Amino acid sequence: MIPTYSLAERDRRWALARELMDAEGVEALVVYGEHESSGPAPFAPDVYFTNERPGSIVVFPRDADPVSLVWSPMHVADHIEARRRGEACWTEPRNMRVAKHAPGVVQVLKEHGLERAAIGVIGLEPYPPFHFNPIMPYGLWTTVLEQLPQATFKPVWLSFLLRTLVQSEEELAVLAHTAGIGEAMAQAMLEAARPGVTEADVYAAGMAAGFRLGAAAPGMLIQSGPGFACWGPPAWSYRPQAPRVIDDGDVIMAEVFCSYGMRESQHQVAIAVGEPHPGVAQAAKVARASYEAGLATLRPGATFGQVAEAMRRPLEEAGGWNVHPLVHGLDPYGTVCGFGGGLRELPEAAEYGLIIEVPTIGSDLPLAPGMAFAFEPNCVLDGRMANLGGTVVVGEDGAVELNSLTTDLLRSGG
Q1: Which of 34, 131, 227, 306 could pair covalently with 127 via S-S, beta carbons 3.0-4.6 A apart?
Q2: What per-residue confidence (pLDDT) applies to 46?
Q3: Residue 135 neighbours by CB under 8 Å, 6+ apart
Q4: What Cα–Cα distance (Å) separates residue 358 from each residue in 250, 286, 328, 334, 341?
Q5: Residue 181 φ then ψ, to 5°
Q6: Contact predicate 394/370, CB 8 Å
Q7: CB neighbours of 231 closer than 8 A, spacing ≥ 6?
């Protein structure tokens, strides 16, 4: 059965918002949501409160229901159609306005007599790992400040993050469903991988599987070759060139982002086509040891920093390094394991202007049941990388793995 959210989940989230306001001493929240179709790691706290189409600004007064300021009439048309179909909409029609701009925000705050109030804002702080700078548009926010000179605005993203990291039973059910779809995407990629096909063929197989099962798959990261130490979207997605043709002895590595109901799972796909280079196979063993170390440490009472350090230790012992995070938080993002330090040891590094390792963020966060993490241990040995892992939840007694296919180096039968 496909999971959905109840009105009890809505009420839980709205109560959380009011508890946050009490704790922060503010009379309302202004919640900025990134534009829709924004790709992996969307900044969409607006949807947390609306359960509607992404891309709005939510103004949530303490003593009233939240108001959703959307960017176009299309949002309203979608909402009308959903009501006609009997879908459970959280936003009343009177609380949806085509007014995603500074005057729209100001008007709602004035209607509730908040011109001189303290107001919490989500969107004025970094949102790692994809947004190391605040996402609130400068022009929009400076206009709000100019039009409400007697109001006090306070960033409250961290308070929101800490209150939403532990997911409800309904949210965990949605995440488990998402992870199952991500597993099917990885299986489809494995079946498609063989000599003579292109990276695009493997990419398409995974995406098609996700789409058929009703998930949003906003692209994936994918690389291929006999050995490499890089990570990112395929070059043919941003540079006009042909997708690489897969050869015998190649390894295909991908990061699958699967989203259903704005709960995202991640899956690290590593497929050996034929016999991989011994360096890749050894790096995969180290990555697997890192994965197991993380599972052993991910339990209530430990900190995120302890998990990151445990996962880093097998790499250090093997003389390897990680291109991207070994682990980071999910739903919402926030905690990130440090990465990229080994890049400075490459002979080409001296040719570049500045290379700085991204530090671990959120080391002191204590873990609690219901928190979700992307386990993505990756190891580079002698210029050859292996990457594996999946989505893991903190359970009452330890780690709960939501998928298993991508936690080892896969072998293509093609």
Answers
A1: 131
A2: 96
A3: 32, 34, 43, 123, 127
A4: 29, 21, 13, 14, 8
A5: -70, -40
A6: yes
A7: 221, 223, 255, 323, 324, 378, 385, 387
Q: Which residues does residue 59 pair with via DSSP β-bridges, in sequence order?
A: 30, 67
In 94-231, the DSSP E strands lie at 96-98, 118-122, 152-155, 220-225
Question: Mutual orientation of helices 157-164 and 7-24 as an angle, nearest 10°?
Answer: 140
Mean pLDDT score of the chain: 95
Phi, psi torsion values for 39, nearest 5 degrees: 90, -165
Query: How many Å apart are CA 134 and CA 124, to the nearest integer?
Result: 5
Q: Quickly tell me which residue has 């016999």 as its tokens.
A: 275
**Structure tokens, 399:** 């780690």
By DSSP bridging, strand 384-387 and strand 410-411 are unpaired
pLDDT at 346 over 90: no
Query: Which residues does 232 contact at the CB level (< 8 Å), separation at least 6?
Result: 221, 223
pLDDT tops 90 at residue 354: no
What domains lie within the chain, and their CATH numbers? 7-164 (3.40.350.10), 169-411 (3.90.230.10)
Question: Where do we find the tokens 């599987």?
Answer: 209
Cβ-based neighbour number of residue 5 at 10 Å:
18
CA gap 165, 244 in Å, rounded: 39
Long-range residue pairs from 338-345, CB within 8 A, at least 24 positions apart, any chain? 338/308, 342/380, 345/321
Average pLDDT over residues 119-146: 92
- Let me know if 353 is exposed, middle or buried by CB neighbors in 10 A (0-12, 13-18, 19+): exposed
Q: Give me 74's structure tokens.
A: 């299309």
Whole-number percent of the chain with pLDDT over 70: 100
The identity of residue 225, as a single letter, is G
> Is the model's pLDDT at 266 over the cut of 70?
yes
Place of tokens 């925000």: 105
